[in-house]
Amino acid sequence: MPLGFTLPVFGKAAATPGGIAYYAREAERAGAAGLWVGDRLLSPVAPVVPYPGYETMPEEFHTAQDPFTALAIAAAVTETAVLGSSTINATQYQPANLARLLTSIDVASNGRLLPGFGIGWSPDEYDAVGVPMGERGRRLDDLLDFLETWWTRDIVSHDGIGYTVPASHIDLKPVRKPPVHLAGFGGKALQRVARRADGWLPAWSIPEAFPADVITSTLAQLRAEAERAGRDPQALGVALRVNAAPGTDLETIAASVTKIVELVKPDHTFVDLSYVVGSVEEQLDKTGRLLELTAEG
């Protein structure tokens, strides 16, 4: 089973000098198929909307690395692992800067970038970047249009929401057009996935927060909607995030990963160990052990 892991971008491990490069290099050597990042700008003391499942924010989010820097570091010290995001809060970034960042990372990694986007849920973060949260759906649609232009045309121009790009030479192109995956379970979000995305970003929690058929039935709906839109339903990819809760032992994680992969059959699977490790060394040790356990299973 190809299995990936999140880079140490959250929690105590994220503060380790040189930790991202060290973990990325050694995790790939151990057999990690992918290296992934999440995106957290703020961890408010009194959030307007708490993190789902919490009364406030997880302590791990008090320390957060920049996801693009983490992916660029990983690109420089690895050769084969997929470099993915699940998820980047894409509508909190200026589109032209985001397009250049993503293209540069894809070139640096020789075409290994898998950008996964969401629109976030935190009013505090939207206030911090000066973007109206109520526009996030429209802004994501606009961004997808803009990235298509940036990645496929030599002369790029775009009239976007709150920004204008005059006709400009954009000769730096990705090695191949990165397969954009989108997150979401809501109606509009799922329609956008089916009609516009290259793949979907579901998440699975250990212990299980909901039945597995929530994912499998949603995936079936997505593929049916994609077919109605004239797309190949089997071309819609799946990158599955597995979140392990604090205190979860490795045998339980391995068994749950094996179970959900057999049911969903995702193209990419990765485990987030942010909540169960305290150091880069511990994360690397548990990465190696999980690779062994899932191989045995």
TrEMBL record:
Pfam families: Bac_luciferase. The keyword Cell wall biogenesis/degradation does not apply. InterPro entries: Diverse_substr_monoxygenases, Lucif-like_OxRdtase_Rv2161c, Luciferase-like_dom, Luciferase-like_sf. Keywords: Monooxygenase, Oxidoreductase. Residues 14-260 form the Luciferase-like domain. It comes from Amycolatopsis vancoresmycina DSM 44592. The keyword NADP does not apply. GO terms for molecular function: monooxygenase activity; oxidoreductase activity, acting on paired donors, with incorporation or reduction of molecular oxygen. This is Monooxygenase.
